[in-house]
Amino acid sequence: QVQLVESGGGSVQPGGSLTLSCVASGFDLDYFVIGWFRQAPGKEREGVSCISSYDGSEYYTDSVKGRFTVSRDNVKNTAWLHMSSLKPEDTAVYYCATDCNLPSPYVPASWGVVGPHRGQGTQVTVSS
What we know:
mainly beta; globular; four-stranded antiparallel sheet; 10 strands; six-stranded mixed sheet; 128 residues
């Protein structure tokens, strides 16, 4: 079965950390970009981070720069989003996908292939 499955979400206090995992099955992640997105209740989906396929180039939206780190291991067919210094406004359902939301109108070919895959999401709640 072709799918992306996220895990690692949960509830954490402000200032805490979580690491989300995104595991691909049924296909190889090697050539695909991997993006992390989030959607809070009543808000539009937001692109949080992206990592390229070929050289590991990274992108972060301004609100998470310096706090979130994206990584991937193509051998393990897995990507991660390490989140630290979490804030209540980070509360959302987090998704991984073989797509990215970059400032440019499109994902450059140098970043890798864009695909149709998207996980079901994992809930992250930051609250005291």
